[in-house]
């Protein structure tokens, strides 16, 4: 679910080379050049906003941004992470 | 005999043979090794017919392999033409054809791509080429790709053997290069006015311009730069700039002139500020040279207080205005380092500089671009033709001296527009470079950068002619009108915003894909908007001011 939200954001807002579309969870984001300094900053802001976390600068490392799976693994490791599904449950 | 850029290497190899010349992920090289391997590769170039005045292409990321390639090209008597691996094939093929490259040097990872583009590049260069340089008359019939891969134990790139290619392209493996006869290199007879490299930059009419830099022009900068940065043998120098960006001339050649160590930043490290800070600490970098945006990220997200960066004694930035706010942050985090602002278009090398006074703790205005470097005259001329001499007076900056480019490759008209007669009444009869940059003078006699005269903007430290991006957009069959506007961005300098009128509206993805095929990544618009019409001025031109305010 969250992987779809992240994929959708990257595909819609950050991808400058449509050849990498459609993205899947293991599309390399760094080796393929999808992320550069600026789009990485935007992605960090989106993730913080979307999942209610504050990402420490020390966590902005290549291991956490290799692909969408890596981002999700990082998110699940965060104690303050709210999955998109659980937020919707709370609203209902 | 003329002193040439490669003599810097030979001198340092004699003086400090076991000193580390290049420290990179693919391999570290001592000065003796760099000298020997570049000699070896130069022999391979010579035996493929490369001679004085030729162009040798380099398609490789910055690495030990590409430094060997740079020196080998020079030792063969040729100049090198760096090709940006991040540019689309179509643009690289255009540059290969334009500069009539017969031999392309590639790294392990770029070898297969090099073979592809060398095979598809058109065979004809431009009809008119400057006669002042010793260039052979006809476009090369046969082209070669030499794979440079100095990793320990040669592992030749998996490429089809030459006879399978059927395109007239010869592929030479690294082990074959190492097996060439080891006789002394024959003298090339090169003069210091021969070209050392051609750097392609954005051109306003849609065709990239090849800035031709001679050995003499480059050495004028290199000698000054090594002395200004006070480079010594123990220095570890890093610049993340790729080979096709003229900032790389500093870490390759100025480090070499001081027998210091050039340290190559691993790819993408600069995207992750904390990793970059950690890397600078681990690698004991003492001199750093980059565009300001990387330093801004380091200041805002690098957590510098956690790292020991006490060896970093000089930070040099160029290419864009460093926002005062972020420079102030960095000054607070690295209070003991020197901070230097270098200024100069590719056409002039660095031509002016400013050092922040020691102990500067905060800035409220942009850093000056300073005063002219050694052997350079930089002067500003008012609209009515007088030299700017009083504080606050404004004018366009002109540059003269031995550091100037020789011209634009194959574009004599563009060259005549840029290298002009000195416009001052009492000036000697000499050619000066017209920068297109508007400046004023501060109370201490430093130049302050005010802006551009024309449609050139900077993004990510690179020059972009808005007209070049627009002309690519116009090539798209559905586009009837296009305007590209700079949107100021604190980090990037500018982002590019394209506004399009189209008969049958293409998708944003389609337009971006079209741009990606023709332009390097930094020139592809960051945003695309569609509009029914573009606002016009009374003269019928696109009203950029009005469009920019929407």
Give a written overview of the molecule.
The complex is a heterodimer of chains A (92) and B (550). The longest helix of chain A has 15 residues, at 37-51. The two termini of chain A are 17 Å apart. Chain A is globular and about 35 Å long. In chain A, 49% of the residues lie in helices and 0% in strands. Chain A is built from four helices and no strands. With 550 residues, chain B is α/β, with parallel strands linked by helices. Chain B is built from 16 helices and 27 strands. Chain A binds chain B through residues 16-19, 21, 30, 33, 35-38, 40-41, 57-58, 60-62, and chain B through 86, 268, 270-275, 293-294, 297, 301-303, 491-492, 509-510, 512-513, 516, 521, 524, 526.
| Widest sheet, order of strands of chain B | 2-1-11-10-12-13-14-15-16
Q: Tally of extended strands of chain A?
A: 0
Question: Which stretches of chain A are poorly predicted, pLDDT < 50 over at least 5 residues?
Answer: 88-92
**Beta-strand percentage of chain A?**
under 5%
Count of DSSP-assigned helices of chain A: 4
Q: In whole angstroms, how far apart are the ends of chain A? A: 17 Å
Class from helix and strand fractions of chain B:
alpha/beta
Helix content of chain B: 25-40%
Give short descriptive properties of this protein.
heterodimer; A: 92 residues; mainly alpha; globular; B: alpha/beta; five-stranded parallel sheet
Give a brief description.
By secondary structure, chain A is mainly alpha-helical.
SSE diagram, text form:
The complex is a heterodimer of chains A (92) and B (550).
Chain A: H1 2-14, H2 37-51, H3 68-76, H4 84-91
Helix pairs in contact in A: 1-2, 1-3
Chain B: H1 5-15, E1 20-23, E2 28-30, H2 31-47, E3 55-59, H3 64-75, E4 79-83, H4 89-98, E5 103-106, H5 111-120, E6 143-147, H6 162-165, E7 169-172, H7 174-178, E8 195-201, E9 209-214, H8 215-228, E10 236-238, H9 248-257, E11 261-263, H10 273-282, E12 287-290, H11 292-301, E13 314-317, H12 324-333, E14 338-343, E15 352-355, E16 371-372, E17 377-381, E18 394-400, E19 407-408, H13 412-418, E20 419-421, E21 431-441, E22 447-452, E23 456-459, E24 462-465, H14 466-475, E25 479-489, E26 493-502, H15 508-518, E27 527-530, H16 544-549
